[in-house]
Amino acid sequence: MPVSILKQGPYLIASVQSALTDTEVIDLRDSLLAGVAKHRSRGVIVDVAALDIIDSFVARSLTTVARTNRLRGARTVVVGIQPEVAMAMSQFGLRLDEAYTALDLEAGIQLLTH
Amino acid sequence: MGDEIRVRIASDADTVTARQAGRDAALRLGFSRTDATFIATAISEIARNITVHAGEGEITVAGFSEEGRKGLVVIASDEGPGIHDVPAVLRDDYYSEFGLGMGLWGAKRLMDEIEVSSEPGKGTTVTMKKWMGFDEVGSMLGGE
Predict the structure, then answer these.
(1) Whole-model pTM?
(2) Theoretical Cys-Cys bridge with A102: which of A20, A27, A108, B52, CB 3.0 to 4.6 Å?
């Protein structure tokens, strides 16, 4: 899977390295949910700067992660959405309900730790 | 008419190939990065409709020119089960639990024109166009 997931203290940081197929998006979703359970993480950061698009399937999967984590007391921050990708999501009407968003990884970590 | 790009769609990896080919073609034709991302996102949705509902099909992307205006056309075709009520799936309030409606609906919002022809049992063809024009937000973002 072209995603690296790193445990940093009470947080998980997932960095997407390239465009993802739907199968890879499902793997990412499942790995994050399993990782939070295994490490008792309090927060997850998903860096999507390398994603070429966020369509309905990706948005739904990220929302599932955020919603599931929230029920378990962990927060989800999606960082690095490219300006053009954000424009397309806005035009499409896609939202990332229940996930926090931040400009980049640094801002995401700040959001979780403050 | 520019070069036509043809991508066979049989798996979700083909969907990535098709949307990246669409993005590259759009940028080559002179579309802004924002418009190219709109086009790639729309292709991703309709390619998923093919893999989920028909199993396999094909997407072609080509530039075109009409009355002095340039644009890009995407044609997605399959020989799958077809759509029984095409006007319904393009309505704003349509929602399918399998996501079919959402994909076409999204493609409609991201592109300038969309036409769906379908015959139950025989397949579906989606033709969608994006016209080149001044992109206010794209230029604001430095996309042009």
Answers:
(1) 0.92
(2) A108
